[in-house]
């Protein structure tokens, strides 16, 4: 039998090793993404089993999971591309959030700042009932004497403006219609999008976490710029690039990327609300503007919690026409669709764009087909106006097996 001290030392060494591995991958670039997902998932298991050791050994030291990383660690860009080039502000693609952690152990929760240990999210606030349409005004009574002058031609109906107001009263027609196809391409390298642009493709839009298309020039594909985060390297070029995009016909603009997640935008709801008002509100009368995109993390203060707090922090001042959501978890269509329902509810019935999603394991083709069937054909999910699988790139967890060759998941997403 091992002594208590021997068991304590063994557990301590195991916890240190797990923490070092997870911390290393948390700061890695997207090239390590598939391994990062697995390690984060495994790390969650280790923390549950040895959390009492962590509380004893690391008392007073920062939690690697809550340490903010440099904003330069984004989603990966090709090795030949500079993310600080003056001609482009494309941000590399962000890593997925960790999968939802297992039930918390009976140990005392850590006192570190959020993100905290997983706790059930508070009940979602029911969406406000959309305001009733006012009754039409009765026509004026015609004059007794028939007028010789022909009746005036009715004035042309003005074009609808995007409904970017923050009154949470719905507005399913506020964001641009997808043009028959909801599917879009998330990419870093525009040259890799070619396989998705053949005859019979089902993509209608694209984005690259940046402000300029960086070589994408495909007929029938709407490019949607994004202000990745309210930091100088992005805001310094935003006004010029947003104006250029709008002048070229852009119909929508994406707000910040995963401010609820430490390695991404990483802003509090109040900070993000103030920045959204400053940088996104000015375009609300010219394009549909999104709320900041969130993860599906169920860590307290992240995911749906963060979105709910952001809407409250806006206090009716943030202009947004739709909400953006991300999802990474084991392959469960019901879980993904349920996440979208909650986002839709928190946003007061406004449309939702699913701008990143992918299962982290299992039969990805079957999962994708099951999800697309619901999003494309089930009237319940008509509020999901656009969605983009993560991502147009080469790798097992992406849509290509080679630069010009789609894998089975890519074929299903692009053409089936």
TrEMBL record:
- One Gene Ontology biological process: fungal-type cell wall polysaccharide metabolic process
Extent of Low complexity compositional bias: 78-91, 105-124, 161-180
Q: Which InterPro entries match?
A: ASL1 (IPR053183), Asl1_glyco_hydro_catalytic (IPR024655), GH (IPR017853)
Q: State the residue spans of region: Disordered.
A: 58-186
- What protein am I looking at? Asl1-like glycosyl hydrolase catalytic domain-containing protein
Q: Which GO terms describe its cellular component?
A: fungal-type cell wall
Question: Is-annotated flag, keyword Metal-binding?
Answer: no
Q: Which domain of life is it from?
A: Eukaryota
Q: Which UniProt keywords apply?
A: Signal
The residue ranges of the Asl1-like glycosyl hydrolase catalytic domain are 184-412
**Pfam family example for this protein?**
Glyco_hydro_cc
Give the signal peptide as a residue range, or say none if absent.
1-19
Please list the residue ranges that the record marks as compositionally biased, kind Pro residues: 92-104
- The biased composition feature labelled Basic and acidic residues covers 125-160
> Is Signal found in the keyword set?
yes
């Amino acid at each position: 039998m091992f002594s208590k001290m021997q068991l304590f030392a063994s557990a301590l060494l195991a916890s240190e090793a797990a923490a070092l591995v997870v911390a290393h991958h948390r700061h890695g670039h997207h090239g390590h993404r598939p391994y990062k997902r697995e390690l984060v998932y495994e790390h969650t298991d280790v923390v549950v089993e040895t959390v009492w050791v962590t509380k004893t050994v690391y008392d007073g030291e920062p939690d690697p999971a809550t340490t903010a990383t440099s904003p330069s660690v984004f989603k990966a860009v090709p090795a030949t591309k500079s993310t600080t080039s003056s001609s482009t502000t494309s941000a590399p693609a962000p890593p997925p959030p960790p999968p939802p952690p297992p039930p918390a152990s009976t140990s005392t929760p850590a006192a570190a700042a959020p993100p905290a240990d997983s706790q059930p999210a508070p009940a979602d606030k029911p969406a406000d009932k959309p305001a009733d349409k006012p009754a039409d005004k009765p026509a004026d009574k015609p004059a007794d004497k028939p007028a010789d002058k022909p009746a005036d031609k009715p004035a042309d109906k003005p074009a609808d403006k995007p409904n970017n107001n923050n009154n949470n009263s719905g507005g399913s027609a506020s964001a641009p219609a997808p043009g028959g196809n909801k599917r879009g391409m998330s990419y870093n390298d525009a040259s890799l999008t070619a396989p998705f642009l053949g005859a019979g493709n089902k993509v209608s839009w694209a984005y690259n976490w940046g402000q300029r298309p960086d070589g994408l020039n495909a007929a029938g594909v709407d490019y949607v710029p994004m202000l990745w985060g309210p930091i100088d390297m992005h805001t310094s070029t935003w006004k010029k690039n947003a104006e250029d995009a709008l002048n070229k016909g852009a119909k929508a603009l994406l707000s910040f990327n995963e401010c609820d997640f430490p390695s991404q935008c990483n802003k509090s709801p109040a900070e993000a609300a103030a920045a959204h008002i400053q940088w996104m509100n000015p375009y609300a009368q010219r394009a549909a503007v999104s709320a900041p995109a969130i993860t599906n993390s169920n860590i307290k203060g992240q995911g749906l919690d963060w979105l709910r707090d952001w809407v409250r922090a806006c206090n009716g001042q943030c202009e947004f026409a739709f909400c953006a959501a991300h999802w990474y978890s084991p392959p469960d269509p019901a879980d993904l669709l349920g996440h979208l329902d909650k986002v839709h509810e928190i946003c007061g019935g406004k449309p939702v764009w699913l701008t990143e999603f992918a299962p982290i394991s299992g039969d990805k083709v079957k999962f994708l087909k099951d999800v697309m069937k619901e999003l494309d054909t089930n009237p319940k999910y008509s509020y999901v106006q656009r969605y983009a699988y993560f991502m147009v790139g080469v790798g097992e967890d992406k849509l290509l097996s080679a630069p010009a060759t789609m894998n089975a998941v890519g074929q299903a997403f692009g053409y089936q």
